[in-house]
Design goal:
The complex is a heterodimer of chains A (113) and B (111).
Chain A (H helix, E strand, L loop, with lengths): L4 E3 L2 E4 L5 E6 L6 E7 L6 E7 L2 E5 L6 E5 L5 E5 L8 E8 L8 E2 L3 E5 L1
Chain B lengths: L8 E5 L4 E6 L7 E8 L6 E6 L4 E2 L4 E4 L5 E6 L8 E9 L12 E6 L1
Parallel strand pairs in B: 1-9
Antiparallel strand pairs in B: 2-7, 3-4, 3-8, 5-6, 6-7, 8-9
The chains are: A mainly beta (113), B mainly beta (111).
Chain lengths: 113, 111
């Protein structure tokens, strides 16, 4: 069984740039959720994707967007990066159809300068 | 909008049981209690979850009070590798649930 993987591991961007983060779901999972974790805080829910559509969103502006692909992998896109976007971005997968636990990937550390 | 209260930190001796308390006095009838932990700079790791009965797996035991207003996660024989931030979360076990993390409890296991 393959776990959740994320790429890249680390990323450095400058303010105003755009970034794309990627996530591959655990095998057998069809739902992906994204979380942002600022330093010293717990993860905060960004949004969830199921059947290639956004299904629930936390308190994040529209410049945070995502995609889910037919193979259930996912991307998180952030436009017009701000310094406060510096954080660990976590992807979690689960199975919709039977209520199931969310399993997290290792995260992508984004630094905005 | 975390709905749980946990101590900020606690220490535990290696080889001893670690008992992590969590208060969730406003828990609803359809909400489960989840526990995750996060070792430094890694993604959160699922530990266990339960509704009203006590649960046990290979990692830990979860004891939920009869009124469901509080619970305790028990690590039976703590090791140095159990040093982590432990999060207690309440959430309905539905298809579209999200996890609302609080600050968690920083557990340090000492040799």
């Amino acid at each position: 069984e393959t776990g959740v993987t994320q790429s890249p591991t680390h990323l450095i961007k400058t303010r105003g740039q755009q970034v794309t983060l990627r996530c591959s779901s655990q095998s057998g999972h069809n739902t992906v959720s994204w979380y942002q974790q600022a330093l010293g805080q717990g993860p905060q829910f960004i949004f969830q994707y199921y059947r290639e559509e956004e299904n629930g969103r936390g308190n994040f502006p529209p410049r945070f967007s995502g995609l889910q692909f037919p193979n259930y992998s996912s991307e998180l896109n952030v436009n017009a990066l701000e310094l406060d976007d510096s954080a660990l971005y976590l992807c979690a997968s689960s199975y919709w159809g039977e209520t199931d636990t969310q399993y997290f990937g290792p995260g992508t550390r984004l630094t905005v300068l | 909008d975390a709905k749980t209260t946990q101590p900020t930190s606690m220490d535990c001796a290696e080889g001893r049981a670690a008992n992590l308390p969590c208060n969730h006095s406003t828990i609803s009838g359809n909400e489960y209690v989840y526990w995750y932990r996060q070792i430094h700079s890694q993604g959160p790791q699922y530990i266990i979850h339960g509704l009203k009965n006590n649960e046990t797996n290979e990692m830990a035991s979860l004891i939920i009070t009869e009124d469901r207003k509080s619970s305790t996660l028990i690590l039976p024989h703590a090791t140095l590798r159990d040093t982590a931030v432990y999060y207690c979360i309440v959430s309905p076990l539905s298809n579209d649930y999200k996890l609302s993390f609080g600050a968690g409890t920083t557990v340090t296991v000492r040799a």
